[in-house]
Design brief:
Elements: E1 4-9, H1 13-23, E2 28-33, H2 36-46, E3 50-54, H3 62-71, E4 80-84, H4 89-97, E5 102-105, H5 110-120
Parallel strand pairs: 1-2, 1-3, 3-4, 4-5
C-alpha cells in the first residue's frame, strides 16, 4: 500500500500523542491540527486522503468544520471520520447526516481504528 496522508484534528495533546503512535503502525503520513481553523487550512493546502476529526474543539467545532469541508468543491471528496466521546446511537446517526463518513468512539481500541482506516483505503483487514 502506498503512503496515505491522514489529517488529525484533535485539541487534546494526549489523544494527539496516541494518534501519532497508532498511525506510525501503518503506511501513513500524519498532519496535525489542534483546532478546526488550522485543520481547514491544512486540508486546503495538502488535500489529505482522510481526516480524523474530533467533534469537541475550541472555537469552531468538528461538526461545523465537517459541514464546511463537505460543501467545498475542492475538499468534499475527502472522507472525514468523527472521533468523539459521544457514544449514543442518535449521535452516530446525526454525525452521518452531517456528512461524516465513519464514527469512532473514544476511547477506541487501536486495532479497531487501524482496521477502519485500512478498510477505508481498500486494504481489507489490518494485520500487525
Amino acid at each position: 500500500m502506498t503512503t496515505k496522508t491522514i489529517l488529525v484534528i484533535e485539541d487534546n495533546e494526549m489523544n494527539m500523542k496516541l494518534m501519532r503512535a497508532v498511525l506510525e503502525l501503518g503506511p501513513y503520513r500524519m498532519l496535525e491540527a489542534v483546532d478546526a481553523e488550522t485543520g481547514l487550512e491544512l486540508a486546503r493546502k495538502d488535500h489529505p486522503d482522510l481526516i480524523l476529526m474530533d467533534i469537541q474543539l475550541p472555537g469552531m467545532d468538528g461538526l461545523r468544520a465537517t459541514r464546511i469541508i463537505k460543501s467545498d468543491q475542492e475538499l468534499r471528496t475527502i472522507p472525514v471520520f468523527a472521533i468523539t466521546g459521544f457514544a449514543m446511537e442518535a449521535d452516530k446517526e446525526n454525525a452521518k447526516e452531517l456528512g461524516f463518513d465513519d464514527y469512532i468512539v473514544k476511547p477506541f481500541k487501536v486495532k479497531t481504528l487501524l482496521e477502519k482506516i485500512a478498510r477505508h483505503f481498500g486494504a481489507g483487514s489490518y494485520d500487525h
